[in-house]
């Protein structure tokens, strides 16, 4: 026992045993304080603690009464936080505290309000499209969800009477299949619902089923007698999709190197693959090249990195040759990436840019096909074959790509003729130039006839207005 002095203050302990005992008691008190502090999370403001239960310590929600195990290392507060985020009674309590005058509606009421808002906005857009005198252009895309349900999205682009460009989604709906007739019937149904008949062109991916859908819609629009030159320009192949096909054809030559780098990135970042997006591949390669030394160091420090990459498809980790291949390929893709950033915008007119992109890609492939690098030459040759498959035959090209450049006051017809002769063989170029001139003349004649009919209708309507009966007073003044 410790002795006390005259003032009642205990003396300092004299033995080492007493000193150790005092320090241990202080650590226990500090540990108990720390444990009490750990339990003072904000989550406990919404739960009751029940310590003396046969099943162990539990936390019970103050609002709905749901109970969860807590206190053990494996039962952290993350379960309690997750419950708060989905507790409906707790959300109602939160809304009541935040604004007592607000009554939280039911999900049926919210769904009803959303549907009424949709109908209101649909009527507004219908009135805008009805007042618009210009033709519209459509874009459609189809895909299959992970639940194996087929969907189609139909987007309209038009210019209003104030010469402003608009883009609106008309329909997003499930379809029975990806067959061309089913796609065409769904597009027809949507156009009839919106009261749209004056369609200039439909942009769609390169697939045989889509060709069937375009043929179906061409017959319907010609039946409505609203097509231009009997639907001659209605089929517009998606330029972005063609560029995607061209690039992926060249990607096959360096596919193994790209796969090794992709697997290395996935091991570290655990990101999902996007095999159908070449721009994602370019951005991934561009970022990985900057960290080449880090990947080399990682292979030396982490044995699981090498083991996992060797077991995955047996490709292994990327070596120096792989990094050289992807570096050359990334530099090559940068030109395509810069083009797509400029030409594939949705908030401004891009139709007059496509011909320039077509020329830029052709010139780029033409310059690189004679490269000293055999791997680069092989890759470009494969891409050039795919390029000519879609844009090499004048019969498969929508001539609107050239006509919109002719209508651009900065270029005119002479520029288009010169650029066509630069990227095509003389025979093909001559045929394509003649096709552009014939289409331009036919298009002008089509609009000239239709505009003269509109003028005659206005004159007839105005003459009918002038034939109103005159009053006796006006007859006297007229005589």
TrEMBL record:
Listed GO MF terms: DNA binding; zinc ion binding
Signal peptide bounds: none
One Pfam entry name: zf-BED
Ranges where the record places region Disordered: 1-35, 449-479
Name this protein carries in UniProt: BED-type domain-containing protein
BED-type domain segment(s): 42-87
Domain hAT-like transposase RNase-H fold: 346-447
